[in-house]
Design brief:
Length: 710
């Protein structure tokens, strides 16, 4: 165990807290410093408008276009976390290939002539599985995440949770900052949401609005590390929308009030490929309704409106970081922030913070119409070049154009159906229900709990033709129930309440009856105090309606098996039959649970981005040529309460919260699953689907994402 602990220490010493900003164009020469107004790079003050693009949430073939689109949108920096659990999946085993080729990603940013903000974490939260921390770390003796203990010495976004860890939390935050600064890497360090950050580290803001934020000491610049231009989505959840006008208002207010570094989280959200999503229940799509959509295309009018905003702000860059700042009240909810220099030049921001009423502001003897909840930018204190509520950029229409799966020869499906429960030998047997995560250690989503009961011929329900009732309680996340090898149903939690209960009548026979329960995780917790201790899996099982009342199976003899058979056999690997007998057919079976489907296809026509339409399927996993498309689950979005309505139009005015502008009630929370074009070969592409509860594979389609201006 000392070897493991040593490996952890060596991997985290250079990556504590967050390393902030450096110029890739002249990293050796461009020293980065700061004062209360701004960062200085190579001796020159700069405003930073940054775009968060997480390298493993896209693919290398997309990186140049994503970075260039951000640059064309008026951003001069790219920001990304570093995802520890992607780079060290097991102790001492490192990976920097494919989507995790961070060096290639940074060089892509360099080639675009942009700055790079590297948020090393390596705790990242980010709706990423386990917050970016390797699950194996939890099982190193003595480890408590985000606390003052020897194996763990890393941090990010700690301020909200520090007090939950007592005095050790404060010591730990101070240690993290001191250790980071001692590396002498030539750039400033910051700790976002860290209100007691030491004098040597910059405290920063995260949120929908940060105009009123001030750093914890007056010698630090005002930095906004996360402005959320949308929000994440969960399986079964609705679509959140944040209007472009409100985002622009928040950004303009931030710079109006002396801000100098701003980062959109996210500017391109991307995709949680494979099993990388957190939550639990975060969708495979991490689109985030960001200015660049999941598929890499500009989202209009949001992208264009923010581009125009950035241009207007940068017209006043020098004045904002060097000029004298004064604030004037122009009337109720009206104010002007004016920046002047010794030559008499000036720039002004006029704002109306009333969330209902348009107003006229008189500034320097000139009248300006200010819509409610808006900011006007006057780079010369006279001419309005931009107002956050006046959207003049183009809008667009997005279509998903479906194509049937096709091949140069007729489609031939290969089908393999697993039997519910244990195959081969059980991994272990216990007279109790075990925790799912502690058992699988996240090596798989799946854990079988299996047992059997013997029903006497004398049971009254057999004579009356009635049915006993199965009761199950679980800490989460999802469960498929099989009785006597037949699929009975599914129970699940959701993104706001993970535990669940199942109550379902069951058909039992005289004699032995098999109870096979497939427990599933849907991404592990990624944030919160002591989040690594959050469990999953079954906590009680019982059957009511027998002669003796209730049969409690909780402490019965349970046999366990980690994963599903096809996983162990590697059926998702290209060309791998797994040594099992596949059925070859032109008409694969429908509504058949625990079934693997394999088909050879050609890529769809055109060059547009591609999404796999899984509306006809139930729940499961998908691969193309061995690449992990990810979890699919076209779960219908529900209301959280009777009054919890979706909206047809969103009013941008007033403060935004994630539930303000939801759409998609009664629709699948995710229907299409991004399949990068670079994953396709010219022909002979192997699509593999593992369907858990039953669907119709013949109705799966590949859809091209077409965006046209309107």
């Amino acid at each position: 165990m000392k070897r493991v602990t040593k490996s952890i220490a060596s991997s985290v010493i250079p990556v504590v807290a967050i390393v902030f900003l450096f110029s890739l164009r002249a990293i050796a020469a461009a020293n980065v410093t700061y004062d209360h107004r701004s960062l200085s790079i190579g001796g020159r003050r700069q405003l930073i408008i940054s775009a968060a693009i997480h390298y493993p949430r896209s693919v290398p073939a997309m990186w140049p276009s994503l970075v260039q689109t951000a640059k064309e949108g008026g951003c001069n920096a790219i920001e990304s976390y570093v995802f520890w659990n992607g780079h060290e999946p097991s102790p001492g085993k490192y990976y920097f290939g494919g989507r995790y080729d961070i060096v290639k990603f940074i060089k892509t940013v360099q080639q675009a002539g942009m700055h790079m903000i590297l948020r090393i974490g390596p705790f990242v939260a980010a709706e990423w599985n386990y917050g970016g921390v390797p699950v194996w770390l939890h099982y190193v003796p003595g480890t408590v995440f985000r606390a003052d203990n020897e194996p763990w010495k890393v941090e990010n976004e700690y301020g909200y949770y520090e007090r939950d860890y007592g005095e050790g939390g404060k010591r730990y935050a101070q240690w993290s900052a001191s250790m980071a600064v001692s590396q002498n890497i030539g750039v400033p360090w910051m700790m976002c949401q860290q209100w007691d950050a030491p004098a040597t580290v910059i405290s920063t803001c995260n949120g929908f609005y940060c105009d009123v934020f001030t750093p914890n000491t007056p010698d630090k610049p005002k930095i906004w590390t996360e402005n959320w231009p949308g929000w994440f989505k969960t399986f079964g959840g609705r679509d959140p929308h944040r209007p472009a006008e409100d985002i622009a208002y928040s950004v303009a207010r931030f710079f109006q009030k002396g801000g100098s570094v701003h980062n959109y989280y996210m500017y391109h959200g991307g995709t949680n490929f494979g099993r990388t999503s957190g939550g639990p229940f975060i969708t495979t799509s991490y689109d985030y309704e960001a200015p660049i959509d999941e598929y890499g295309l500009p989202r209009l009018p949001k992208w264009g409106h923010l581009k125009n905003l950035h241009k207007a702000i940068m017209l006043s860059e020098n004045m904002l970081i060097t000029g004298e700042h004064r604030n004037f009240t122009l009337g109720p909810s009206l104010e002007a922030d004016v920046y002047t220099d010794t030559s008499g030049s000036c720039a002004a921001f006029l704002s109306n913070s009333d969330d209902k009423v348009d107003k006229t502001a008189v500034f320097r003897n000139t009248s300006y119409h200010l819509p409610a909840w808006s900011v006007s930018i006057l780079p010369d204190c006279k001419n309005e070049v931009f107002n956050t509520a006046k959207v003049t950029s183009k809008s667009s229409k997005v279509e998903m154009l479906p194509e049937d799966l096709k091949s140069a020869s007729s489609l031939k499906w290969q089908v393999f159906s697993e039997k519910p429960g244990i195959w081969g030998e059980a991994d272990f047997v216990k007279n109790e229900l075990v925790d799912h995560i502690n058992t699988t250690k996240d090596t798989t989503d799946y854990l079988w709990y299996t047992t059997s009961i013997t029903v006497s011929d004398n049971e009254e329900f057999l004579k009356k033709g009635s049915r006993p009732v199965l009761f199950i309680e679980s800490k989460g996340h999802t469960l498929h129930v099989f009785i006597n090898k037949e699929y009975l149903g599914t129970a699940t939690g959701n993104g706001t309440h993970v535990p669940f209960k199942l109550k379902k009548s069951v058909s039992l026979k005289a004699g032995e009856n098999n109870v096979d329960l497939l427990s599933m995780t849907v991404g592990l917790s990624n944030a919160g105090s002591f989040y690594e201790w959050v469990g999953a899996g079954l906590t009680s099982v019982s059957i009511k309606g027998l002669n003796n009342g209730t049969l409690n199976l909780t402490n019965s003899k349970w046999s366990y098996k980690l994963g599903v058979q096809g996983e162990h056999l590697g059926l998702f690997k290209p060309g791998n039959s797994g040594g099992v007998k596949w059925t070859v057919t032109a008409k694969p079976p429908k509504k058949q649970p625990l079934t693997w489907y394999k088909v050879i296809i050609d890529p769809p026509s055109g060059s547009e981005p591609v999404g796999l339409d899984m509306m006809s399927m139930g729940k499961g996993m998908a691969w193309l040529n061995g690449e992990e498309i990810g979890r699919y689950w076209p779960r219908i979005a529900r209301k959280n309460s009777p009054n919890d309505e979706c909206v047809k139009e969103c009013d941008y005015r007033g403060k935004f919260m994630p539930d303000k502008c939801n759409t998609g009630c009664g629709e699948p929370s995710q229907r299409w699953y991004h399949v990068p074009r670079s994953w396709f070969k010219a022909s002979g592409n192997e699509l593999v689907i593992f369907e858990e509860k039953g669907g119709n594979p013949l109705k799966m389609k590949l859809s091209r994402r077409k965006v046209s201006a309107v």
